[in-house]
Amino acid sequence: MNSFLRNYLRWTVLSAFIGLIAGICAAVFLISLEWVTNTRDLNPILIWGLPFAGFTIGYMYHRYGRDISAGTNLILDEIHDPKKVIPVSMGPMILVSTLLTHLFGGSVGREGTAVQMSASFADQLSRVFKINGEERKFLLAAGAGAGFGAAIGAPWAGFIFGMEMIHVGRFKPFAWFQSLIASFVGYYTAIFIGAHHTEYGLISAPAFDLKLLFFVAVAGVIFGGAARLFMFMTHLIEKVQQKFVTYPPLKPFFAGLLLVVLYYAEGSYRYVGLGIPVIQQALHNPALFTDPIFKTIFTSLTIGSGFKGGEFIPLVFIGTTLGSALSFLLPISFKILAAVGFAAVFAGASNTPIACTLMAIEIFGLPIAPYAFVACFMSYYCSGLKGIYKSQKIIHKKFFNIF
Questions:
Q1: For residues 272-283, b (16+ Cβ closer than 10 Å) or e, as one string?
Q2: Please, what is the average pLDDT of the chain?
Q3: Could you tell me the sign of the dihedral formed by the alpha carbons of 191, 346, 284, 368, in that order?
Q4: What is the mean pLDDT of residues 279-293?
Q5: Is the pLDDT of residue 146 over 80?
Q6: In contact, 355 and 380? CB cutoff 8 Å
Q7: What is the value of pTM for the model shown?
Q8: What domains are there in the chain, each with its CATH number?
Q9: Long-range contacts of range 171-179, CB-CB < 8 Å, 24 or more positions apart?
Q10: Which residues contact 261 (CB under 8 A, 6 or more apart)?
Q11: Could you tell me how far CA 326 lies from the centroid of its own chain?
């Protein structure tokens, strides 16, 4: 019994350390990103420097970061088969490269950066404490989940995310105790430091409506298709770049040139960076179908070419605007469709429907729960087996796949 209590006490302390690390990482990143975004918005001419930012990022990883270039997939590989501690350089390199991408207008997200920073720094605890390979799985899962929850302001989603992202077709709560403590400590640490979490507002929804659930399920199928299209385009761009561009730093450089031209041709510049104002607008007014289409093109080109920043917010952008636009075709409030789309497209792309359902509840309120659940799982089932994380292990095939 004493050994049992000592083990839980030990992991309580370690998990609190993990959460503290995740909260600090998320806060530093969010505060820096806010400054970078404001700087770019005040000086839009910076967007013309995107090709050179791309070359700089590509050179950094080619010269100094080949062993960490896999990013979140490296974290998943170490959870599946722990071999060696993730290099501490992952944290500062993903931070600097993501800020560069945003400063010059790359169409990327932010939560992936927080996940990598938190997990890589948390993994350094295994150098200080006596942590074996099996325990490192707990540490990495808790660190990744805490970083995710702290960055978006959804600790319950972070609690589940680090465990759910590991496998496709099976959810195994193997590190629930560590993840729970780390996620909430990380969330409150980020708030204490002064990190700003975006407010989207609560959504009113009927408690239970079968007709509404049916149309939400239809929308969920479409969200799954949108997730699959995003992944197809991103992976296609990666393959094309690998075939025709041999020097890695030139991949984001050429992509940056093309992006600058496309931004100029489109004219509004509403698809640079995170696009938070567009997401908020789609929750208050019906969006157009051009928004998810253009964001898919710009983000897949940005990420598929080697720019850093993650896919979460772009997929939220795609899901929210697509859902809002679907109100022209489906007899549902655009606000409900936008709110469930906010979570469902990422659920399909990342194969994390449970975490995304919880995220929707935390952000939009409890009334959205049944609709978010249906939309996230329908998207998950229809998005295919391969997600944005290539190192996810497929344990069971999904029930159906209509695409």
A1: bbbbeebbbbbb
A2: 92
A3: negative
A4: 96
A5: yes
A6: no
A7: 0.94
A8: 2-193 (1.10.3080.10), 210-394 (1.10.3080.10)
A9: 171/354, 174/137, 174/138, 174/141, 175/137, 175/138, 175/141, 175/142, 177/8, 177/11, 177/15, 178/11, 178/14, 178/15, 178/18, 178/138, 178/139, 178/141, 178/142, 179/15, 179/141, 179/142, 179/145, 179/146
A10: none
A11: 23
Contact 6, 130 (CB under 8 A): no
- Nearest-Å Rg of the Cα atoms of the chain is 20
Highest mean pLDDT among 82-86, 287-291, 389-393: 287-291
pLDDT for 14 equals: 92
- Spatial neighbors of 204 by CB under 8 A, at least 6 apart, are 335, 367
Instruction: Give me the amino acid identity at 227.
Output: A
From CA 239, how far away is CA 233, in angstroms rounded? 10
Q: How far apart are CA 23 and CA 31, in angstroms?
A: 12
362 in Cβ contact with 156 (< 8 Å): yes
HSE (side-chain half, CA atoms, 13 Å) at 26 = 42
Whole-angstrom distance, CA of residue 83 vs CA of residue 311: 27
Structure tokens of 241?
A: 């770049």
How is residue 377 written in tokens? 């799982």
Quote the DSSP letter at residue 268.
S
